Amino acid sequence: MFPGLSTAYWLTLHGLATVVAILLYVIASHALHQRRHPSAAIAWVLFILLMPYVALPAFLTFGSRKQARPRNRTALLAADPAAPGAEGSWAVQTAAALGQPAPAAYHALQLHADGHEALAALWQVIDGAAHTIDVCTFIVGDDALGAQVIERLCVRARAGVKVRLMLDGLGRLMGGRPDLKPLRACGGEVTLFVPPLHSPLKGRTNLRDHRKLLIADAAFESRRLWSGGRNLASEYFEGAPGKAPWHDLSFDVCGPLVLQASSLFEHDWAFASGRKAVTDTATPPDAVAAPAPCAQLIASGPDQVDDTVHALLVTAAYRARRRIQLVTPYFVPDASLLMALCLAARRGVVVDLLLPARSNHRLSDVARRRALRALNTAGARLWLVPHMQHAKLAVIDDVVALTGSTNLDSRSLFLNYELMFAFHDADAITACAGWFERERLPATRHEPAKAGLLTDLAEGLVLWVGFQL
Question: Is 90 exceeded by the pLDDT of residue 313?
Answer without folding.
Answer: yes
